[in-house]
């Protein structure tokens, strides 16, 4: 990682007037060693983490939790019995983060399970990763109504569920002596020598499944730490900052930006359990004086509509990712709070950030410039005249996929550009100044009357016509035209005639105007905040 750090410094000079940062890019080999480095740099007493229980954890408190919880899990699920991966079915709380650091330090891979997914998706994830042990919480199981899903996990195979409450009850005198007399003061000796390898898996995440079956994404320590260094190279975070993140850590945006970035960089973090509490989050941002907020376009839109103008007065960075930023949301934040949303772009497979707008380099409509050390290529797509299919390569790219057909086997990353290249599946343009513009997903094109039509262009048309509402485009088979466009909208007054008028005004082709409009009270979302296009496609087929 030291070579990466040197190259980042060469490629991204720091502004002269920049204030000193508490952390910055890490030179550590693993997440756990990076945590130890952050603690040594900031001091054991530095209050770095707060969660919904309003307890402020110092680095020393977090380290205690890492050491003890991992010891208890190892005793309850020895490596010989449980395999190398351990499933985590837990919310955004301090113990979840502690287990990510601790398990990876002992050569176990935390598999972050999506608790908002159905039983079938959870079972598929466990089989894909060959999980035998899953850690959850009885309190969380009750609050999130996970009982039926956990029951289905047990009945589907050999998965054993361990509860945090039972693990804590097993703490004995010897455990306490081990922690206080030895482990707490020799933290680096806790990491196994075999685990201290930057290419070993740090976490196993699962793609959102917004368009297809979820896949397991194996992210090594190298990818996550490289992405943190890349982010720090373009965004200044200091001791004066406090990040508010409600994005779930089973999603890569929530894990990397919402948890690892502050904890390993020395920036304070308020970790909240759910992004769906639209009234609570603005109140927390004000009460806890948070200066940085991460969210998806959908979530940021809800926060803005429910917030009082003063509640975001402390914010200096609002960063959107995981889905295209809605123009109405961008305008609402600017008009109501005087805040510019900085849109970024990435993928779970790239740990996740590939590009981001910043105060020093911002272009409306783009997703910013590529982060340092990311190589990119565009390949031509038949039937599409603008842009090309985006392939990327860099130190933050995954090791490979786990797939349903061969559980446990890692398929190395590769694309038509060669080994080590990741095919994003996005159609992009890059302008002369290096700003990236996303034109759509390859999978989100319909062939209407022989012409390729972008479903995202259909959504942009709907947003231009009705900016205050939410819209999503899908398609279904049509005997006469090949495929037929279906628009789902929360605006009951939106009509095809209004869309046609707006299309003529904007110079859009008639083919972009959807033939079918379906009004919904709200659009279906995944737990990550992305639109659930799989569900919408099924609904479109029934229209």
Features:
28 strands, 25% strand, four-stranded parallel sheet, globular, GMP Synthetase, Chain A, domain 3, alpha/beta, nine-stranded mixed sheet, Rossmann fold, 34% helix, 543 residues
Protein described:
The chain is α/β, with parallel strands linked by helices. Among the domains are: 32-196, 3-Layer(aba) Sandwich (Rossmann fold), CATH 3.40.50.12780; 449-542, ANL, C-terminal domain (GMP Synthetase, Chain A, domain 3, 2-Layer Sandwich), CATH 3.30.300. Helices cover 34% and strands 25% of the residues. The protein has 18 helices and 28 strands. The strands form 7 sheets. It has a 9-stranded mixed beta sheet with strand order 2-1-10-9-11-12-13-14-15. The protein has a 4-stranded parallel beta sheet with strand order 4-3-5-6, with helices on both faces. A 4-stranded antiparallel beta sheet has the order 7-8-18-19. Strand 16 (375-381) and strand 17 form a beta hairpin. Helix 6 packs across helix 8 (147-156). The model is unreliable at 9-26 (pLDDT under 50).
């Amino acid at each position: 990682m030291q070579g990466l750090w040197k190259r980042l410094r060469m490629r991204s000079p720091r502004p002269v007037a920049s204030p000193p940062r508490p952390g910055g890019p890490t030179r550590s080999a693993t997440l756990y060693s990076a945590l130890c480095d952050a603690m040594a740099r900031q001091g054991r007493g530095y209050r770095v983490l707060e969660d919904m229980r309003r307890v402020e954890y110092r680095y020393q408190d977090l380290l205690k939790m890492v050491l003890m919880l991992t010891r208890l899990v190892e005793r309850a699920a020895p490596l010989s019995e449980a395999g190398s991966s351990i499933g985590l079915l837990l919310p955004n709380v301090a113990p979840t983060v502690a287990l990510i650091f601790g398990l990876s330090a002992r050569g176990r891979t935390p598999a972050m399970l999506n608790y908002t997914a159905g039983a079938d998706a959870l079972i598929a994830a466990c089989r894909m990763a060959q999980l035998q042990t899953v850690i959850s919480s009885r309190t969380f199981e009750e609050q999130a109504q996970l009982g039926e899903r956990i029951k289905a996990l047990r009945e589907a195979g050999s998965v054993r569920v361990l509860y945090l409450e039972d693990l804590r009850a097993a703490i004995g005198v010897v455990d306490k002596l081990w922690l206080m007399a030895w482990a707490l003061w020799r933290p680096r000796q806790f990491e196994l020598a075999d685990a201290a390898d930057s290419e070993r898996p740090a976490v196993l995440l699962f793609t959102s499944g917004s368009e297809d079956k979820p896949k397991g994404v194996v992210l090594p320590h190298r990818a996550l730490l490289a992405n943190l260094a890349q982010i720090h190279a373009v965004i200044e975070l200091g001791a004066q900052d406090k990040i508010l993140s409600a994005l779930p850590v089973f999603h890569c945006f929530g894990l990397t930006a919402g948890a690892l970035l502050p904890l390993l960089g020395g920036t304070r973090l308020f970790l909240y359990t759910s992004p769906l509490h639209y009234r609570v989050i603005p109140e927390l941002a004000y009460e806890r004086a948070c200066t940085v907020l991460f969210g998806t376009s959908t979530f940021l839109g809800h926060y803005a509509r429910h917030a009082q103008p003063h509640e975001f007065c402390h914010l200096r960075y609002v960063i959107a990712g995981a889905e295209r930023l809605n123009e109405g949301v961008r305008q609402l934040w600017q008009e109501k709070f005087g805040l510019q949303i900085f849109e970024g772009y990435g993928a779970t497979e790239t740990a996740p950030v590939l590009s981001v707008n910043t105060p020093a380099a911002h272009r409306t409509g783009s997703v910013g410039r590529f982060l340092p050390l990311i190589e990119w290529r565009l390949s031509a797509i038949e039937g599409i005249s603008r842009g090309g299919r985006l392939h990327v390569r860099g130190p933050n790219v995954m090791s490979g996929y786990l797939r349903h057909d061969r559980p446990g086997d890692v398929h190395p990353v590769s694309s038509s550009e060669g080994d080590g290249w990741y095919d994003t599946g996005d159609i992009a343009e890059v302008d002369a100044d290096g700003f990236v513009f996303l034109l759509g997903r390859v999978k989100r094109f319909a062939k209407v009357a022989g012409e390729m039509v972008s479903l995202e262009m259909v959504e942009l048309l709907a947003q231009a016509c009705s900016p205050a509402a939410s819209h999503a485009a899908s398609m279904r088979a049509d005997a006469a035209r090949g495929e037929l466009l279906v628009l789902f909208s929360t605006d009951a007054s939106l009509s095809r005639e209004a869309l046609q008028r707006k299309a003529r005004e904007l110079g859009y082709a008639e083919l972009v105007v959807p033939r079918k409009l379906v009004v919904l009270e709200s659009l279906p979302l995944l737990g990550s905040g992305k639109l659930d296009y799989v569900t919408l496609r099924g609904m479109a087929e029934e229209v």
